[in-house]
């Protein structure tokens, strides 16, 4: 069964249930289904290319991080995403599940994405390093050097309009800069012709919630560049 047929069946069942309960589909669900149903089919070569990178990541032993990893975390999301979020590296929960941003920081990232009027399925989420550094320490330069080419290949395949670099490691890796994240955020930079917005990492926001306002300002700039309206309710 084609994906469009599956989505149409899901939409039909949701509408039937909403009708039986005397209500309507939540606006966010209706919008997301509408975007998915109207989207052009995914390009098989793009999907296959990302799957190929993921298989290589699974076998990678280019740095010492492979010795204590549970599962590699290649990345996930829409292969044709306009927006890609790039973090530093997997944490404990990510190492267990093999998925990016599923721990407390990931839950905050999910809320940020929802506040932008988007869903996790519409974006792509990845990390600079694909294996968890011990005790969640900052990746070493040799680890970043070994793993960053996988990220760059993913970004070239996806060809997004915007990359949101979450934290200093992601921003410095993409931009080849040693500037602190506080100085880089708030304005767009470029990576191979793609706009990059550095901002604070969600884990930093959990420790410093007063900085959330600055991150939201960065997200509003991203929405503006993508030509999307600012959601009326966050």
What does it look like?
With 234 residues, the chain is an alpha/beta fold. It folds into two domains: 41 residues; 181 residues, Uracil-DNA glycosylase-like domain (Uracil-DNA Glycosylase, subunit E), CATH 3.40.470. 49% of the residues lie in helices and 11% in strands. The chain has ten helices and six strands; from the N terminus they run αααββααβαβααββαα. A six-stranded mixed sheet has the order 1-3-2-4-6-5, with helices on both faces. Strand 5 and strand 6 form a beta hairpin. Helix 3 runs antiparallel to helix 6. The longest helix is centred in the first third of the chain and has 18 residues. The relative contact order is 0.13. The model has no long low-confidence stretch (mean pLDDT 88).
- Quick one: overall form? globular
Q: Which stretches are poorly predicted, pLDDT < 50 over at least 5 residues?
A: none
**What is the CATH top level name of the largest domain?**
Alpha Beta
Helical residue percent band:
40-55%
Any idea what the CATH architecture of the largest domain is?
3-Layer(aba) Sandwich
Number of domains: 2
% residues in beta strands: 5-15%
Major β-sheet profile: 6 strands, mixed
Counting DSSP H or I runs of 4 or more residues, the number of helices is 10
User: What is the gyration radius calculated from CA atoms?
Assistant: 18 Å
Structural class: alpha/beta
């Amino acid at each position: 069964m084609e994906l469009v047929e599956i989505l149409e069946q899901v939409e039909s069942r949701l509408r039937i249930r909403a009708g039986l309960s005397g209500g309507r589909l939540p606006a966010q669900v209706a919008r997301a289904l509408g975007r998915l149903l109207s989207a052009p089919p995914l390009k098989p070569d793009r999907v296959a290319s990302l799957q190929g990178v993921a298989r290589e990541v699974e076998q990678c032993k280019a740095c010492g991080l492979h010795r204590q990893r549970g599962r590699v975390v290649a990345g996930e999301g829409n292969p044709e995403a306009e927006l890609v979020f790039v973090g530093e590296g997997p944490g404990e929960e990510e190492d267990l599940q093999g998925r990016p941003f599923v721990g407390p920081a990931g839950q905050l990232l999910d809320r940020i994405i929802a506040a932008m009027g988007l869903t996790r399925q519409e974006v792509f989420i990845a990390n600079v390093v694909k294996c968890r550094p011990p005790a969640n320490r900052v990746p070493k330069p040799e680890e970043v050097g070994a793993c960053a080419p996988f990220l760059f290949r993913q970004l070239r395949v996806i060809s997004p309009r915007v990359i949101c670099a979450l934290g200093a490691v992601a921003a410095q890796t993409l931009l080849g800069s040693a500037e602190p994240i506080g100085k880089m955020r708030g304005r767009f930079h470029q990576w191979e012709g793609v706009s990059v917005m550095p901002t604070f990492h969600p884990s930093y926001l959990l420790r410093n919630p007063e900085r959330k306002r600055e991150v939201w300002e960065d997200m509003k700039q991203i929405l503006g560049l993508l030509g999307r309206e600012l959601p009326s309710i966050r």
